[in-house]
């Protein structure tokens, strides 16, 4: 399916992603039948083990059947240098192009530049030329392109090298990718700046070695892309009052005063653990209150804290999001084994052919599970006084 180019939009996106290309143009969207491919280096490849990016994207269009496939390869560059030959596949860039053509993508996320940035300023011109050649070879597919900046190099302290100089080079390569995005009418998303800023807010690392993202890093990486494309859901907040309930980020279906508290039924977009859920009830009177989600107590808080606002996070308040992510991770691991078989040698090709059919069956079954988990879910939220409250 041919699609128009997709772009970052709006003042909010401009503020979050200062180097975004295409601001003010057509928004990013996914539609029924879309096939999304993640293409790039090791940062892209290892995302399949976390599933954060696919989870955040697929929940925004829960009724659309969209296929995601990760074609990242550790150590790879825009020249396809790391891609070895294998089962009926050539090596290098020829393999990249053959395999991505076979998937018939309608949207391609391209994540290169980090490995190339180690060449410094002297490698920039060659990188830009080779990146443009790659885009030229992807263009006949008619897919919309989202070009990602390289990620930030985290300083984990000595004896690891000081990454300050490398980060300057990364920013230079990111600027080159942004220019290419502007030339080719593609979307560009800066993930370098959000990851750097996320580290300033956190006390724990975002990477395992300064380069490869850990689970927390991938959560920030996915959120940066979600915000950069302008598709992040609105903040989830519920305000309880004497005259009723107001909510953002979810649709209130039912609201009932109950036992000195409230019982609220909502339909909500799938949330991922770590996304805050904020409750406020200025009318809470004395003592402690329980906040329960679908019958499970998520927190017990004093009335004073509830009056100013309490923020909850975690799997109890986001169970569907975590189930969805785990199903996506399992599917991603099966596809990885499907297209990168461990016994990829010509002596084994007869066996591999039969294995592929088994992998395809398992992947199709997981796609059905993912389709069930991604839809908005009815949830019951209760805020009630703890027994024995003095009021």
Describe this entry's structure for a reader:
- The protein has 391 residues and is an alpha/beta fold.
- The chain is built from twelve helices and 14 strands.
- The strands form three sheets. Strands 2-1-3-4-5 form a five-stranded parallel beta sheet, sandwiched between helices. Strands 8-9-14-11-12 form a five-stranded antiparallel beta sheet.
- Helix 3 (52-58) runs parallel beside helix 9 and helix 6 (124-138) runs parallel beside helix 7 (164-184).
- The longest helix is centred in the last third of the chain and has 25 residues, at 349-373.
- The radius of gyration is 23 Å and the shape is globular.
- Residues 1-24 have low confidence and may be disordered.
Decide which structural class fits the backbone: alpha/beta
Order of helices and strands: HEHHEHEHHEHEHHEEEEEEEHEHHE
Proportion of strand residues = 15-25%
End-to-end Cα distance: 62 Å
Catalogue the unreliable spans.
1-24
- Percentage of residues in helical conformation: 25-40%
The total beta strand count reads 14
Mean pLDDT across every amino acid position: 90
Physical arrangement of strands within the biggest beta sheet: 2-1-3-4-5
Summarize the main sheet. Answer: 5 strands, parallel
Q: Provide the gyration radius in Å.
A: 23 Å
Shape: globular
